[in-house]
Write a structure and sequence with these properties.
80 residues, 0% strand, elongated
């Protein structure tokens, strides 16, 4: 036998949603995102990561720098 919910079914989706933010942490995070988005994204580059993730990020950075060097060599050859 299926259990019935004690709440009546919703007629439509809510237009707003209220979050209990007694300490103000949620509002503070949204404010930081809105006002300091690029600074926050820059700081997140230096997040704590596992050894595996760190090694992956280092390999990615090294391959990106090699691509930049390869592009600069090719550009130099084109201008000679």
């Amino acid at each position: 036998m299926a259990r019935r919910s004690p709440f009546p079914p919703k007629a439509s989706a809510a237009l707003t949603e209220t979050i209990n933010d007694f300490s103000g942490d949620v509002v503070t995070r949204f404010r930081c995102l809105a006002k300091h988005y690029f600074g926050l994204v820059d700081m997140l580059r230096f997040r704590v990561a596992s050894r595996t993730e760190s090694e992956r990020l280092i390999r990615k950075a090294v391959s990106a720098s090699k691509r930049r060097v390869d592009l600069s060599v090719e550009t130099t050859k084109l201008h000679e």
